[in-house]
Specification:
Helices cover 0% and strands 50% of the residues. By secondary structure, it is mostly beta strands.
Length: 118
């Protein structure tokens, strides 16, 4: 069993930045993809970004390309999401997840709220 814990969410104004972190309970995640998802009120959960276990492959949804950067530090069992130039449309609960594929993870974190005001 892998436990994930996100941190770094908060409230910012449009144009601001936040850095999300997700720490895993054990180092098994070094062999897994790690990903960020988000869910806004009244909307379905959507994919945001994913990184391979060595970090050589990254994937972003179109709406965050050029603004968000995903990275991971396997020595610290930690995943990051640097979010720049935030807009109100980025407001959502952000979830960290991990598994053997990007978009069908085995484990989820409880989420961290990001709120962007105009």
């Amino acid at each position: 069993q892998v436990q994930l814990a996100e941190s770094g969410g908060g409230s910012v104004q449009a144009g601001g930045s936040l850095r999300l972190s997700c720490t895993a309970s054990r180092d098994t995640v070094s062999n897994y993809y790690m990903a960020w998802f988000r869910q806004a009120p009244g909307k379905e959960r959507e994919k945001v970004s994913c990184v391979s276990w060595r970090g050589e492959t990254t994937v972003y949804t179109n709406s965050v390309k050029g603004r968000f950067t995903i990275s991971r530090d396997n020595a610290k069992n930690t995943l990051y999401l640097q979010m720049n130039n935030l807009t109100p449309e980025d407001t959502a609960m952000y979830y960290c997840a991990t598994g053997q594929t990007c978009w069908n993870p085995l484990y989820w974190g409880p989420g961290t709220q990001v709120t962007v005001s105009s």
